[in-house]
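tool_call: predict_structure(chain=1)
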Amino acid sequence: MIQHGRAVFLAIAALAAAPLYAQNPYAIHVMKADGSGARKLVEVAGYTDQEAPRWSPDGKQILFDAAQPNTFGRDLFVVNADGTGLRKLGPGQRADWSPDGKQIAYDDGHDVFVQNLDGQGREQITTGRSPRFSPDGSQMAVVEERMLYVVDMVTGVRRALFEQPFSLLYAGVCWSPDGQNIAAVAHPVQGPRRQLLIVNAQGEKKGVRARVQTNGGMSSTPSYSPDGKRMMYSAAYLMIIVEVDAQERPRMLPGQSGRNFEPHWSPDGEWIVFTSNR
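tool_result:
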C-alpha cells in the first residue's frame, strides 16, 4: 500500500488552501503528460463550472458537462481536441464514450442513459451515476447507493462488486485498458482515510487492492494511462501520478496552478484533459 509522504501532504494542503483559486470559474484545460504546454481548451459562455472531461476513443474530441446558470441542471457538450467545433448535446452529466465513439452514456443524477452522438436513440440503461463503458463495450460500471455495480449491456443484469457498501463511493470510476480491473475512490465504513481501490471486474472475491490512501482531499475520477502501467488522480486539487504495480511514491504532475482535478489521459498517452480554475 502506497502512502503520501509528509512533504507531499504539506505542499498539497498549502496550495489547496490558497483563497484566490476559489474566485475563478472551472473550465476544461489540456496539458502534455509531462506537465508542459498547459492551456485552456474551452469555457462555454453563459455556463458556470465545466467539468468531467473525457477524450473520445480516437483522440479527436472531448466530452464534458457544464452547469446551467442559476439552476441545478447540467448540459453535455463536445468539442474538438483543438478547441474548435463546440456543440451542445443536451442535458446530462458525467458522460462517457462508447469504445467505438458512436454513442455516449451519462446520468441525470438518478438514471443512466445511452444515446447516439447526434442526440438520437436515447435509452435508459439502468439506475445510478457516472456510467463507464468497459473497453470492449459489453459491460458498464455504475455507482449507486455507495456500491459499485457492473451491468451486462446485453441482458441488463447487474452485479455488485463488493459485499458491503462503503461509507462513501465517489462517482468517476475507471476501467483498466485490458478490462480486468476497475479503479475507484472510496471512503471505508471504518477509518478516516479515502482510498484509491483497484478491484477485479468480477468482484472483490477475485481481488482488490488499496493503492493509495490519504487523510482527505482525494477526489474521484482516477484515469489509467493507455498502457495500463500508470494511474492519475487528484488530491486536494493537484493531479498525482502513481505506478500501478510499482512500490514508488506517488508524484505530483509538474506545471500545475489553481485547482486541478478530473484528469483523463488521451488515447495516445501524450496529453491530459482536466478541470481547472487556473
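agent: The radius of gyration is 18 Å. Proceeding to next step.
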